[in-house]
Amino acid sequence: MAMVLLAAFNSIIAEISYSYARHYAISSADALSAHIVKEIGLMSKAAHSDAVTDWLADEDDYDKKILAYQELSGIVDVLYSSNLYIGVENSLNEYNVDQGYKTGAVNPFTTLEEDDPEDSWYFLCAASDKEYLLSVDIDHVLQRKRVWIDYKVIRNGVLLGVISSGLEFSHVVGELFSQYDDADMRGLIVDADGIINMDSSLLNNEVFLFNEFETRFYEEYPDPASIEAMDAHLSGINGYFESINSPIVVKLPSGRYRYMTIAPIRFTDWSAVILYNSSSMLNMSLFLPLSAIMLILLVLFTFAINAVNYRLIFRPLGKLNLSLARLKENGEEFIYGIERDDEFGNLSNTIKDLFSKANIDALTNVYNRRFMENTLHYVFKFLSRSNGLLSVIMIDVDHFKRYNDTYGHDQGDVCLKSVAQALAGGISRSNDFVARYGGEEFIIVLPNTGQSGVRVLAEKFLADVRALSVPHANSDTAPYVTISAGVASGMVSHTQRWEEYVKRADEALYLSKQNGRDRCTYLEYVEPKARE
Fold this sequence. Notes:
It is a single chain. By secondary structure, the protein is of the alpha+beta class. The protein folds into four domains: 48-165, PAS domain (Beta-Lactamase, 2-Layer Sandwich); 180-282, Beta-Lactamase; 288-351, no CATH class; 360-522, Reverse transcriptase/Diguanylate cyclase domain (Alpha-Beta Plaits). It has 16 helices and 17 strands. The chain has helices at 2-47, 50-57, 62-76, 120-127, 169-177, 206-210, 217-220, 224-235, 278-286, 291-330, 343-359, 369-386, 400-407, 409-425, 451-468, 498-514; strands at 83-88, 93-98, 110-111, 132-139, 144-155, 158-168, 185-190, 195-199, 215-216, 248-251, 259-264, 271-276, 389-397, 433-438, 441-447, 483-491, 520-522. It has a six-stranded antiparallel β-sheet, sandwiched between helices. Helix 1 (2-47) runs parallel beside helix 10 (291-330), helix 2 (50-57) crosses helix 3 and helix 13 (400-407) crosses helix 14 (409-425). The protein starts with a helix and ends in a 10-residue tail after the last strand.
């Protein structure tokens, strides 16, 4: 009987391992496609814009060019990248649109040459039968690797040009693969030619991240079982994957890793390849509830229980994992499962409570200083790689000590809550956020926002607080509560530190107070440089 139970136990472990491996491969593929699909959508919007097609069809018309640049600069504001490159088919002129766009800067900066390797992006895309091409290549200006999206601009079947933009490669790799413990798992992205474009084990390898790197899957994994599975998968690729197909799961007979999954990544001809060692697969299965009872029932109900486990555990766990990934990426506060009245609901609510206590200010319900410092450090590091724009607004409630002395600390807390919610209500982009810096001071962080944008927002914040009409009898500034603001705005470089922006915003805030309060002071703006 013991041998039967042991055999049943091994059988169910294998079934669960396969099920989990398939699920994890799909989650990994979805994680990367989530990054890419947003960029592809924005590039498609640019390529199909009437303003853009009108200009590329009549390149020398200045008015059409200005309208196209205005349209494209709006798209640049929400791209991961801080610029777009445009090649024109008729003239082979190359233009650049970035967040530092000025009306006068609408001239081509170079001419595309077919025998120049740096211009191959244009000619490869133009000659392709696909609407867009994806590639991983070096940005020779910034000397950094990027995931490039090159999108054709076509009108009535005629090619007018190609628009190109790139995601920061290290950002994509870090977001996708930072969850992997290299001792237990390894994640790869393999293209249709079997070339490894991303490798979780090389996250800290400068050569891999910032230089040419071309290694074939077969060179890294010569195991016959993995080669056979990869050959079968690659031979079936015919264009970009339109949906997530069932991933391939391979049990490897020997070596460090015992399972390999291959999952297509939507909207690309790339595949997520995840390798697991045997101990990681075993540990995953040990977390299943009521495992002792399952060992007895699995002799008769192996397939039924496997289906139930996937529905009740792995699918909810995958949704929870996806919501936590979004929480980590952009602060989205939805956590799957908090409405459930079971153990899974308890787990989800515990995670939500821990996140709130660690990152949310208990009084005002906006982010706290700890979240601001951690997130600003990450945002600053990312922006420095592409010389992106950053604006920081430091805000102080005017004469707040007098307010507390007049109305009491309880009413002072009510006042701070009202101001915090007014500031938070003025935030519309997912990457922007408000944090309580301390006492009656708040900080607003606006990545990819330049001087013109932050001026409008800062004045709006001042007006929104005035509109609250909170009485303040002892204010020298106004009969109601007002705020003063200081703005530091500039182009981020690797030689700077995020603390400098906070310090500069604080200095600007001091000037606002010195000059009468209820106003905003702006520091000198650092103009971003166009690509040479």
